[in-house]
Write a structure and sequence with these properties.
It contains 9 helices and 14 strands. With 357 residues, the chain is of the alpha+beta class. The strands form 3 sheets. Strands 3, 4, 5, 6, 7, 8 and 9 form a 7-stranded mixed β-sheet that branches. A hairpin with a 7-residue loop joins strand 7 and strand 8. Helix 1 packs across helix 2 and helix 6 packs across helix 7. The chain is globular and about 60 Å long.
């Protein structure tokens, strides 16, 4: 993620919620792309002035599947691994292991509130900046000459000036099929209580291992690069070997039951809808809402989530602990949510552990 910051839309400069909307009521942003909300508070506190939510920054992230040669599988049965990077200790995601991504730039087409195509461009551009992987359509060989430093030079150019991305594409003559190579997977919005907030679109893409083998971290914003299967990443997190925040851990559990990369890609392509579209029935984002009395953060589809009907017994929530670096997931449970499979990240974990907000 580069240091460039795309300006949030002026109409949502206070976090997207007009002053006359009651706390707890979901509302669509003027651009129609995001859901923002503030959890209801006891009546005795309603009249006290509260700090407005931080502005939302549009961003994008790429869940890049590194596919194995035909017939080859990992020890845990997958025919792919996921390329992930570890942030430095000064980033917004301090020391966290994440999917490559970053904030949208005007060069991506983000003039006001960005289109989905601008988010696709951002995801591919940021992936190149942070890993050196060029996600192009139909390429079977690396376009960069080995041992010349060409890849590093282009990464530095794109990092310092987003417009250089299109120059790279033209000079190398590669085809970037943003619409068909990338599959829209998820849209998460940072809770209103956190000091930095993002509206992040996650995309899936798959490349053969031959094209991801040369991936390297940038030794600046990212300090490590790894290839994990979903269960390998989940296990590493459970052993405190890596740090995962709620969206990344949730997504890895969502993918863990799919052992084939073709199945991962096809499920999204054939289904034609993201999890939030399946649950909410529209294009609003996946906005966690803190519920201190429940000791967790609730997501759409949970029986306690306001504003839309659901299974009265459904759970879609993360038990979290607030720390200096953000919300640490202790347990994520999804059960009985329409159209989505069940999982429990830590069956022996807490059922009720209020976060200190």
């Amino acid at each position: 993620m580069s240091s460039r910051r795309a300006a949030p839309p002026s109409s949502t400069s206070s976090g997207g919620r007009p002053d006359d909307v009651a706390p707890g009521a979901p509302v669509i942003s003027p651009a129609g792309s995001s859901l923002t909300s503030i959890a209801a508070k006891p009546a005795s506190k309603q009249d006290k002035p509260r700090k407005p939510p931080a502005p939302i920054r549009p961003s994008a992230s790429l869940i890049l599947l590194s596919t194995l040669p035909a017939g080859e599988k990992t020890a845990d049965g997958y025919d792919y691994r996921i390329v992930m990077v570890r942030r430095n200790d000064k980033s917004s995601f301090k020391n966290a292991t994440v999917f490559a991504g970053g904030n949208l730039d005007k060069a991506d087409g983000a003039v006001t509130w960005p289109s989905l195509m601008a988010s696709r461009r951002c995801a591919v551009r940021e992936c190149f900046e942070e890993t050196g992987i060029l996600v192009s359509a139909g390429e079977t060989e690396d376009v960069f000459a080995k041992g010349t430093g060409e890849r590093r030079a282009w990464r530095e150019k794109v990092h310092s000036r987003a417009e250089a991305w299109e120059e790279l594409v033209r000079e190398k003559g590669v085809k970037i099929d943003y619409e068909n190579t990338l599959v829209h997977y998820h849209n998460w919005i940072t809770p209103t209580i956190l000091p930095k907030r993002y509206d992040t679109h996650f995309f899936l893409a798959a490349l053969p291992r031959t094209l991801t083998a040369n991936a390297r971290h940038d030794a600046s914003e990212t300090l490590a690069l790894t290839h994990y299967t979903p269960t390998e990443a989940i296990d590493a997190h459970s052993k405190d070997e890596i740090v995962l925040f709620v969206p990344q851990l949730y997504i890895l559990h969502d993918l863990a039951h799919l052992k084939s990369w073709r199945e991962v890609m096809q499920q999204r392509r054939s289904g034609g809808s993201t999890p939030e579209e399946q649950v909410l029935g529209d294009g609003r984002g996946w906005l966690p809402m803190m519920q201190p009395k429940l000791g967790c953060s609730i997501l759409p589809g949970d029986n306690a989530y306001p504003g839309h009907p659901t299974n009265p017994h459904a759970l879609n929530r993360s038990y979290v602990k607030m720390g200096p670096d953000g919300l640490k997931p202790l347990r994520i449970v999804r059960k009985g949510v329409k159209g989505l499979h069940d999982f429990d990240s830590n069956p022996a974990g807490p059922n009720h552990e209020p976060a200190k907000l």
